[in-house]
Amino acid sequence: MDDGGTAPLQVAVIIGSTRDERVGGKIGDWFTERASARTDLELSVIDLIDFDFPAHYPRHATAPMQAFTDRIASAEAFVIVTPEYNRSYPASLKQAIDYAYDEWHAKPVAFVSYGHGSCGIHAVEHLRSVFAELHTVTLRNGVAIDLLDEPWDDRDRAVALMLDQLGWWGIALREARAVRPYAS
Question: How far apart are CA 102 and CA 27, in angstroms?
Answer without folding.
Answer: 28
